[in-house]
Amino acid sequence: MSTSEILFWFLSVLALFSAIMVLVSKNPIHSVLWLIVVFFAISGHYLLLNAQFLAIVNIIVYAGAIMVLFLFVIMLMNLNKETEPSRNIWMKFSGVISGGLLLWIFVSATRSAGEIVGKTAMIKEGSIGLIENLGKVLFTQYALPFEISSVLFLSAMVGAVVIGKKQ
Amino acid sequence: MLNDFFILMKFELLPAVIFFVLLFIKVGTAELSNASIIRLANILLFINLVAGFFYNKDGGMFGDMFHTNALIVLQKSILNLGIFIVSLQAEAWLRTHKHVIEFYLLLLSSLMGMFFMISGANLLMFYLGLELATIPLAALANFDLEKRKSSEAAMKLIMSSAFSSGLLLFGISLMYGTTGTLGFAQLPALLNGSNLQVFAFVLLFAGFAFKISVVPFHLWTADVYEGAPVPVTSFLSVVSKGAFIFVFASVLYTVFKPLADTWYHMLFLLSVLTMVIGNLFALRQQNIKRMLAFSSIAQMGFILIGISGSSQAGTASAVYFVLVYVFTNLAAFGVVALVSAQTGKEDITDYKGFHATNPVLAWVLAIALFSLAGVPPTAGFFGKFFLIMAGAAKQNYWLITIAALNMIVSLYYYLNLVKALFMDANASPVPKITFGVYAKLAIVICIAGMVLSGLASVVYEYIYNLSTGF
Amino acid sequence: MSEIPLTHILFVSTALFFIGMYGLFTRRNMITMLMAVELMLNSVNINFVAFNKYLFPENLDGVFFTIFIITIAAAEAAVAIAIIINLYRSHHSIDVEDATEMKW
């Protein structure tokens, strides 16, 4: 077993375990903290896949910005208490059944897809995920989507300020 | 080159310019009254609508990121018309609102998102446009800031839209994994109908179905329509739905053409479910906005019939129906908006004896309801007629029979409301509603549109000639 | 060169997706529901990067899609949080089952 394989298994188990813990913990603060662990594990996966920029962005944006926002709101509204997880048992049961069925369909579909089975990564050089290449493509080929996302941020900001402001 | 840029992207640039003009007014020092802001915004939106009819060209820009043609121009003009009427009708509600400029900012950014979504020839552009079209709408749904229902509606809208975009993205990621491209031009050649691709397509389809509230995914619709402010509801039900229908039809016809057998059966099943459940639930509603919500779900079922025809007539009838639907549904919502803004009454029982106090509004609402029901001389009849004719081309007469039965069921609840308007007595009817020049203009446009688009057969022929075949 | 087969990564991402979906349906706390949505989006991100790196390394479509998903998730979370704050002001709770003024 090579180092990258060991790392892969470790990160996968960590990601899945913490994802389950996000949903199992009753205290929202614990959920947020487990979710941050998930994000770190996923960033580790990105590093293994040789996408360094994404790994950093993932940590900065998700763990650094979104999760801090979540924590801030939980603290602000003083929601730091145990909430019973309930919803009735049938809901959960049907959730598990339908989720399991979908997963099963997906797995069987993947196994039959010849182009995917048995592929291993063909990462040419170490530079493809680096900022320089990404930046060049982002500001030429992807200029329009970039502009659209700026409009989206502006309008999301307007909306969030109007709604969140105290009357 | 630069000229091309301005002409091809005119529809997206104009809302952007208006957006920034309004934004600068907001952050500047000048204190404008609500009335003057509304006047300015309406004039700008009118210019935006008119400018859409001149100097149009076919072509693409930014590689495969953006393209436009005559049909897309027409679709965008329909949406421009819709947003103009919505803005006219919103005046009664906005007059006393504290955040008028923000309302227009969010409305315009949502419109821009729809335009980019329609023009995008790439799954990335499609996704970005879709999110830009929905996220501001969720904020708008919360614009009755102190009402509990309003924030509930916004919460339901953003949660369901987040879930649906999750499904959509998972589908897109699998589509990318099996084909290696995101471009609409390259995709059809690479679709081979393998299990994984069909699975991806089903997820994509589910994401779409959420947005146009097709039945298993319609649960958010009624709550959001009821809780959101009426102008936002009318925008959601007409402009936003219209945009998604346009994209849905063109994506199915061009990109997923190789999977036509798969989606024909899905469309068949979903359109039957949507019509039946939409109509059955509409029968039992007490709140007029909820009734219109379920009726709009049922109308979506009819549109799916038209799209399932997979022919030139399929696209044309769907676009034509959306045009008719803009006039019809906005006329109905316009009356509801006036009543709701001035009296706060939204129950169907409140509308009893409406004709005695407000004869003009009662007639407008009645004509709109007849058109929604598809009673012959109105535009709604022709809309449904063309949709069903397009669907009938597939020789699937079960679908046609079920559609006809559903039209009868829907007739019952629409006529019930008409009866309440004209015949039922009411001890405390809605008082006389006064309405200003904006609402009058909106009503005149809607009525004229309903009459003209129904009687003038050139409208449908024009749309038919622009539509691409299958 | 990495020796991990693509199917393994896909399995991890799919499992994350369905864990997120399950959480969205079963949890009542709106903030936790929002976290479940973030899980779903992250699983999609893994899918995109993995497909890009394994199958189509010659261009960067998948990586860029991921970047845009991350940005949009941030905007969506901001608006959703604002809505939840507003809801909390009027309902004094962020339990979805307390937000059921409208039914059928």
TrEMBL record, chain A:
Transmembrane annotation, as ranges: 6-24, 31-49, 55-77, 89-107, 142-163
Keywords: Cell membrane, Membrane, NAD, Quinone, Transmembrane, Transmembrane helix
Xref: InterPro entries: NADH_UbQ/plastoQ_OxRdtase_su6, Nuo/plastoQ_OxRdtase_6_NuoJ
Reactions it catalyzes: a quinone + NADH + 5 H(+)(in) = a quinol + NAD(+) + 4 H(+)(out)
Topological category with respect to the lipid bilayer: Multi-pass membrane protein
Function: NDH-1 shuttles electrons from NADH, via FMN and iron-sulfur (Fe-S) centers, to quinones in the respiratory chain. Couples the redox reaction to proton translocation (for every two electrons transferred, four hydrogen ions are translocated across the cytoplasmic membrane), and thus conserves the redox energy in a proton gradient.
The name this protein goes by in its record: NADH-quinone oxidoreductase subunit J
Organism: Limnovirga soli
Lineage: Bacteria, Pseudomonadati, Bacteroidota, Chitinophagia, Chitinophagales
UniProtKB/TrEMBL annotation, chain C:
GO molecular function: NADH dehydrogenase (quinone) (non-electrogenic) activity; quinone binding
Membrane-protein topology: Multi-pass membrane protein
Keyword check for Oxidoreductase: yes
Main location: membrane
Subcellular localization, as worded in the UniProt entry: Cell membrane; Membrane
Top-level taxonomic group: Bacteria
Keyword field contains Transcription regulation: no
EC number per UniProt: 7.1.1.-
GO CC terms in record: NADH dehydrogenase complex; plasma membrane
Gene3D superfamilies in alphabetical order: 1.10.287.3510
Spans through the membrane: 6-25, 63-88
Pfam family, one: Oxidored_q2
Broadest EC class assigned to this enzyme: translocase
Reactions catalysed, as given in the entry: a quinone + NADH + 5 H(+)(in) = a quinol + NAD(+) + 4 H(+)(out)
Keywords recorded for this protein, A-Z: Cell membrane, Membrane, NAD, Oxidoreductase, Quinone, Translocase, Transmembrane, Transmembrane helix, Transport
Single Gene Ontology BP annotation: ATP synthesis coupled electron transport
Family membership noted in the UniProt record: Belongs to the complex I subunit 4L family.
Function: NDH-1 shuttles electrons from NADH, via FMN and iron-sulfur (Fe-S) centers, to quinones in the respiratory chain. The immediate electron acceptor for the enzyme in this species is believed to be ubiquinone. Couples the redox reaction to proton translocation (for every two electrons transferred, four hydrogen ions are translocated across the cytoplasmic membrane), and thus conserves the redox energy in a proton gradient. NDH-1 shuttles electrons from NADH, via FMN and iron-sulfur (Fe-S) centers, to quinones in the respiratory chain. The immediate electron acceptor for the enzyme in this species is believed to be a menaquinone. Couples the redox reaction to proton translocation (for every two electrons transferred, four hydrogen ions are translocated across the cytoplasmic membrane), and thus conserves the redox energy in a proton gradient.
PANTHER family hit by this protein: NADH-UBIQUINONE OXIDOREDUCTASE CHAIN 4L, NADH-UBIQUINONE OXIDOREDUCTASE SUBUNIT ND4L
Self-association state and partner proteins as the record states: NDH-1 is composed of 14 different subunits. Subunits NuoA, H, J, K, L, M, N constitute the membrane sector of the complex.
HAMAP family recorded: NDH1_NuoK
NCBIfam families with a match to the protein in the record: PRK05715.1-2, PRK05715.1-3, PRK05715.1-5
Protein name: NADH-quinone oxidoreductase subunit K
